[in-house]
Write a structure and sequence with these properties.
The structure is a single chain. The protein is built from 14 helices and 13 strands. The protein is α/β, with parallel strands linked by helices. The radius of gyration is 22 Å and the shape is globular. The termini are close together.
Length: about 375
């Protein structure tokens, strides 16, 4: 069978969809010899990806050069379907993310849906371009022959908000980049801690500064813990809180202005912002944290949680949306809308070393259940049947 793949996000390896794209292609290239694959790209693949002879690349760009929603819509909705049809070689096609692509009926189309954020949180659609793109994408989802949801939560959201027939949806869990499964060397540990001016044992929160990530709630809880510890002394010292994520105050109210909040709460001595951290540095940041805290109110999957689990870092996270599917009994949960509950869970984890050690073991065991091999095999099984 000849199978086309929208691999556009290979050019954005720092994004979640970029990681899915690159790791899916790597797994296919390593294991799959039966089918032929055509990768549709806007830029060439990274040089470290060597493709076997049953793969070929089609690289093309729209005349619109700016990397924005106009270009994205043009490429996905118009150029890509025309290219796939013109090639007359695709019997099946995989869209590795939800998008406006609608293919001729003779091509079996599988579309992966990672989350329903713009549908559930309409505040993200704060201009006409975003609204148009979302409408086109929902049309693409409806027209696909099969939807692959990355979690049961996303599956339920597709049924609830877009009225997708449950028979047309399959759940297939993604995995993390292999870099998170490797043990961090002592040299890397030392260099990362030195670079970011950190000491082991801090509290770490990563994954972005979107409002739904609930960073403001975490800062309020952290402030309360500091105040109570000053009066009651239940711990010798509350560990420093480290937060990573792109600071974009101009994006408010969609993005939390964490820097402003930290100053207003007089937390500058206790909270450190790292901005966007390169992926190669993240394993060491996870490993040296005493806790990874993920207070998000909604996730389609929750890659940062699985990344931390792979490094043996104890994880506590909001119990909304998909996170309990990912963590199961490997992590502790709180209600992200209940700040008292969040504070209680963080405090208990800080007080009990044996609990943190148990969480680390359970998290590592749970993380082993995810793999790109499983994800890739299921995609191919759906295409072939």
């Amino acid at each position: 069978m000849k199978i086309g793949i929208n691999a556009s996000f290979a050019r954005k390896p720092s994004t979640g969809i970029g990681q899915v794209t690159l790791n899916f292609i790597k797994e296919l290239a390593k294991t799959e010899t039966e089918h032929q694959f055509i990768l549709y790209l806007e830029e060439d693949l990274p040089k470290d990806i060597i493709l076997p002879s049953n793969f070929r690349k089609e690289i093309f760009k729209p005349p619109w050069k700016r990397d924005d929603l106009i270009r994205k819509t043009w490429w996905e909705k118009y150029m890509l379907p025309l290219k796939a049809e013109h090639d007359k070689c695709c019997e099946a096609f995989i869209s590795l993310y939800q998008c406006p692509t609608i293919l001729p009926g003779k091509i079996k189309h599988l579309m992966i849906v990672h989350d329903m954020i713009p549908t559930i949180f309409p505040e993200y659609l704060n201009n006409m371009r975003k609204k148009a793109y979302q409408n086109f994408s929902e049309g693409g989802i409806h027209q696909a022959d099969k939807i692959i949801a990355v979690s049961s939560r996303t599956e339920k959201d597709l049924i609830k908000f877009l009225d997708i027939n449950p028979k047309d949806i399959a759940v297939n869990y993604i995995d993390v980049d292999p870099i998170f499964k490797k043990e961090v060397s002592q040299t890397k540990d030392t260099n990362i801690l030195k670079e970011y001016k950190l000491k082991p044992g801090y509290l770490y929160c990563g994954g972005g500064l979107d409002v739904r990530k609930n960073i403001e709630g975490l800062l309020q809880v952290y402030k309360s813990l500091l105040t109570k510890n000053k009066n009651i002394h239940f711990l010798e010292e509350i560990p420093k809180l480290i937060i990573s994520g792109k600071l974009m105050p101009k994006m408010t109210p969609l993005i939390t202005d964490a820097e402003k909040l930290i100053k207003e709460m007089n937390l500058s001595e206790h909270v450190q912002l790292l901005d966007m951290v390169p992926q190669e540095d993240l394993p060491a940041l996870y490993k040296n944290a005493s806790l990874f805290i993920f207070p998000s109110k909604y996730e389609g999957f929750g890659l940062p949680v699985l990344e931390a689990m792979n490094q043996g870092t104890p994880v506590i996270a909001g119990k909304n949306s998909s996170i309990p599917e990912v963590g199961k009994d490997g992590i502790l949960y709180f209600d992200p809308d209940d700040l008292e509950d969040m504070e209680m869970v963080i405090r208990n984890a800080l007080l009990k070393k044996d609990l943190r050690e148990a969480m680390s073991r359970r998290g590592l065991e749970r993380a082993k259940e995810f793999s790109w091999e499983k994800f890739t095999k299921k995609i191919l099984n759906i295409i072939e049947n």
